[in-house]
Automatic annotation (TrEMBL):
PANTHER family: SUCCINATE-SEMIALDEHYDE DEHYDROGENASE, MITOCHONDRIAL. Keywords: Oxidoreductase. One of its GO terms (molecular function) is succinate-semialdehyde dehydrogenase (NAD+) activity. This is NAD-dependent succinate-semialdehyde dehydrogenase. Belongs to the aldehyde dehydrogenase family. The keyword tRNA processing does not apply. InterPro entries: Ald_DH/histidinol_DH, Ald_DH_C, Ald_DH_CS_CYS, Ald_DH_CS_GLU, Ald_DH_N, Aldehyde_DH_dom, Aldehyde_DH_Superfamily, Succ_semiAld_DH. Gene3D superfamilies: Aldehyde Dehydrogenase, Chain A, domain 1, Aldehyde Dehydrogenase, Chain A, domain 2. The lineage of its organism: Bacteria, Pseudomonadati, Pseudomonadota, Betaproteobacteria, Burkholderiales. Residues 21-482 form the Aldehyde dehydrogenase domain. GO terms for biological process: gamma-aminobutyric acid catabolic process. GO terms for cellular component: cytosol.
Length: 488
């Protein structure tokens, strides 16, 4: 699929350190999850290259932070325009290595780019404060300054947006960055880095280190242990988040963590059922269920339970599973064999414990060499089942039954996670009660789609630390400094 790019020079297989493309000594393979085909062999870097990238980012920092925010914004805006201009090629690269349908990949390019222009603007508004004095001989001022060299470790499910959501605020604030993209999707990261180069990003300001699973651990360790790196931003599993947090403890690094979720999706008796079904489809099956805000548990009140399951089943039957490059396909493959195995184990566990299979329920046949799983709907699911506790990260909708508002709030909050949640109701009192009672960083009310650059994205409990996007998203990349002026 990559032979058809309009601009073949967007296909980079080397890492970017200090403005130079670096081949490294070894390479690792990147595969198409829809076919299993080899797409490219990419530079497999390690700890020594990480030290070089840290040194380059540190050397580039003084000049970058000294530029007026408006000059940094101009480079970011050129970068943004280039992403938009090359949408088609970026989408092709993304579908090839990640598997999502081409239309979704195009959507992600736009979403990913939107963080760049948002933060290019926000960077101009990093205001400080003057504080009313309590001593006539003194004046108090607080200013905000770029934190320094920042590291970003990103996942494969949104190969561009998870990078720009971290890197754009860091760069806009005057920090320099080192990106370690997921080993499954380095090509999208490198294409975006190539466009940053074309936009005029100075050498060392934006660096990308690629590595396979094993080398990613070594690169991550070097980034965490460095006392030059001041901030680490990570999106991925809670398990890896804990490892990184531990590794960052000795250097007391600032952390932004966007970790796992276990999103409840609640449908009350008074909901608009068609709208709830539509929201469930978007929240559950987008990216084949592989987003951290995907509905993981669908709780439906008993009065509308059967009607909801029937309507959802009809929509699920309309999904077209296949290679993301084929027209009309709206459900792609899972990222790898491990992801497929997890989905299979969750479905097997639910069926063994008494769930009712309404649709799907097995890996799809006749789809070439990729990891495809049928869009699946399970009814009569209970809290004892694995899918109630763990994030399935696949196209499986487990539907639970509940009776009362109090009961469902307790069920929804009974998890160590707290990222996204959703509920459907037309009762204004209930909307406030439930919206306030859900222990989540984000609540979608009568919608299954909540993400956009302008709003604060993030979780509570073991779903993470900090917020990305919105005017708050740049705060993680600046330090507040207090200046006390005496002898006035
Ligand atoms: P997922 O479960 O979504 O694949 P992971 O948390 O395993 O998420 O991976 C997300 C990112 O973290 C990837 O870039 C991966 O290479 C990186 N990663 C995984 N394990 C480690 C580790 N021990 N140290 C540093 N980075 C890691």
């Amino acid at each position: 699929p990559l032979a058809a790019l309009d601009d073949a020079s967007l296909l980079k297989t080397q890492s970017l350190i200090n403005g130079e493309w670096v081949a490294g000594g070894a390479r690792f393979a990147v595969h198409d999850p829809a076919t299993g085909a080899l797409l490219a062999e990419v530079a497999n870097l390690g700890a020594a290259d990480t030290e070089a990238a840290i040194a380059a980012a540190n050397a580039a920092w003084p000049a970058w932070r000294s530029k007026p925010a408006k000059e940094r914004a101009a480079i970011l805006m050129r970068w943004h325009s280039l992403l938009i201009k090359h949408t088609e090629d970026l989408a092709r690269i993304m579908t090839a290595e990640q598997g999502k349908p081409l239309a979704e990949a195009r959507g992600e390019v736009a979403y990913g780019a939107s963080f760049i222009d948002w933060f290019a603007e926000e960077g101009k508004r990093v205001y400080g404060e003057t504080i009313p004095t309590t001593d006539n001989n003194k004046r108090y001022i607080a200013i905000k300054q770029a934190m320094g060299v920042c590291a970003a470790i990103t996942p494969w499910n949104f190969p561009i947006a998870m990078i720009t959501r971290k890197v754009a605020p860091a760069l806009a604030a005057g920090c320099t960055v080192i990106i370690k993209p997921a080993e499954q999707t380095p090509l999208s990261a490198l294409a975006v880095a190539e466009l940053a180069q074309r936009a005029g990003m100075p050498a060392g300001v934006l660096n990308v280190l690629t590595g396979d699973g094993e080398q990613s651990i070594a690169i991550g360790k070097a980034l965490c242990e460095s006392d030059v790196v001041r901030h680490l931003s990570f999106t991925g599993s809670t398990e890896v988040g804990r490892i990184l947090m531990r590794q960052c403890a000795p250097t007391i690094k600032k952390l932004s963590l966007e970790l796992g979720g276990n999103a409840p999706f609640i449908v009350f008796d008074d909901a608009d059922l068609d709208s709830a079904v539509e929201g469930a489809m978007a929240s559950k099956y987008r990216n084949a269920g592989q987003t951290c805000v995907c509905a993981n548990r669908l709780y439906v009140q008993e009065g509308v339970y059967d009607a909801f399951v029937t309507k959802l089943a009809a929509k699920v039957a309309g999904l077209k599973l296949g290679n993301g490059f084929e027209p009309g396909v709206n459900l792609g493959p899972l990222i790898d064999a491990q992801a497929l195995a997890k989905v299979e184990s969750h479905v097997a566990d639910a069926l063994a414990k008494g769930a009712r299979l309404v649709a799907g329920g097995k890996p799809a046949e006749g789809q070439g060499g990729g990891q495809f799983y049928e869009p699946t709907l399970l009814a009569d699911v209970t809290s004892e089942m694995l899918c109630a506790r763990e994030e399935t990260f696949g196209p499986v909708a487990p539907v639970f039954r509940f009776q009362t508002e109090t009961e469902v709030i307790a069920l929804a909050n009974d998890t160590e996670f707290g990222l996204a949640s959703y509920f459907y109701s037309r009762d204004i009192g209930r909307i406030f009660r439930v919206g306030e009672a859900l222990e989540y960083g984000m609540v979608g009310v009568n919608t299954g789609l909540i993400s956009t650059a302008e709003v604060p994205f993030g979780g509570v409990k073991q779903s993470g630390l900090g917020r990305e996007g919105s005017r708050h998203g740049i705060e993680d990349y600046v330090e507040l400094k207090y200046l006390c002026l005496g002898d006035i």
